[in-house]
Amino acid sequence: MILYFTGTGNSSYTAELIQSITKDEIVSMNEQLRKGTSDSLQSENPLVFVCPTYAWRIPKVIEEYIRNTQFTGTKDAYFILTCGAETGDAKQYVKKLCKEKGFNLKGFAAIVMPDNYIVMYNPTQDEEARVIVNKAKEKINLVAESIRNSRELKDEKVPFMGRTKSGIINTMFYSMFVSAKGFHSTDQCISCGKCAQLCPLNNIQLVEGKPQWGKNCTHCMACICRCPSEAIEYKKNTKGRNRYNAMKL
């Protein structure tokens, strides 16, 4: 069973490519989170978790989802993290989660994909993004073949400062940056409601046809990057920046 969480499409692309090789069932953790319940999931094939890297670790919302969900059948698990450059020491935190859940961690892989964190920097331009995605395909295919054959994935070297990035910097990231307060719509808003439909935490409501953000935000960037009229900004940071959407490449 492949379970993915995605904001701008990097992880859904990766999960779907893996599924095209393994032919396993695929489940959107976005949909599971939107339902607000942790359904029990059963699989005899390995569990394959595919998600973005948030400040060199798996997103807190996904860690909590896995922690609160009952998985029956197999105990084998793979974690595939998409990232802009590297995943720091994320694997050590994945190991702790697997130990807590009783999973047998068969592999951890980092898949370099285009940058999308628009609130901090300008995301990868589409032409360069296509090159990065095409390069990523080779590794995704190799990972998928290993999963299909139940092979363990090779260990990947922890980069310089990995422990610090996944530790104290991750903590600072959530306390200092992850907030919905800066999001707002502009006059380009057409009241289509797509932002509310996409939000995995049901944190956006339309009030008189315009989006209003609550307090429960994970900074997935789905609302701002996948708005069809590019009518969402974050403070003054995002004005004029590229909206990255892997689904449009």
Automatic annotation (TrEMBL):
Keywords: Iron, Iron-sulfur, Metal-binding
Domain 4Fe-4S ferredoxin-type, chain residue ranges per copy: 180-209, 215-237
SUPFAM superfamilies xrefs: 4Fe-4S ferredoxins, Flavoproteins
InterPro entries, per the entry: 4Fe4S_Fe-S-bd, 4Fe4S_Fe_S_CS, EFR1-like, Flavodoxin_dom, Flavoprotein-like_sf
One GO MF term: iron-sulfur cluster binding
Source organism, top-level taxon: Bacteria
NCBIfam families registered for this protein in UniProt: ferrodoxin_EFR1
Protein name: 4Fe-4S binding domain-containing protein
Organism of origin: Anaerosporobacter mobilis DSM 15930
